[in-house]
Amino acid sequence: MKDEEVTTVEARRRKSGKPDASLLPGSEPVGMETGYRILSYIAAGLLFYGGLGWLGDKFLGTSFLLPLGLIIGVVLAMYAIIRRFDQPPETKPKN
After folding, report:
1. pLDDT tens, per residue, the chain with 95 residues
2. C-alpha–C-alpha distance, residues 10 and 44, integer Å
């Protein structure tokens, strides 16, 4: 990127009056960042608890632990999402 382009983008940002959220200390994610964070909570829950269920099924010779693990993973992920994002800004826990 050329220096002229950088100064143009920086000048446009200053002119709009909107602060860059990524540069503010302690700022919460906005827009797509929040969506990606929520998606990662769901994916992590599915992968972790689904993986535990799959391992349990494999070693115990059962067939119900994988679906049970997937359901538990989604439920716990939704709990974590609600707990994390459904609070007023002034009472959010600092991570």
Report:
1. 555 555 666 666 666 666 555 555 555 556 788 889 999 999 999 999 999 999 999 999 999 999 999 999 999 999 999 998 887 666 556 66
2. 36
Side chain identity at residue 59, one-letter code:
F
The amino acid sitting at 51 is G
CA–CA separation, 13 and 66 (whole Å): 49
Alpha carbon distance 66, 11 (integer Å): 54
3-state DSSP call for residue 86? coil
Q: Which two tokens stand for residue 15?
A: 């002119």
pTM to 2 decimals?
0.61
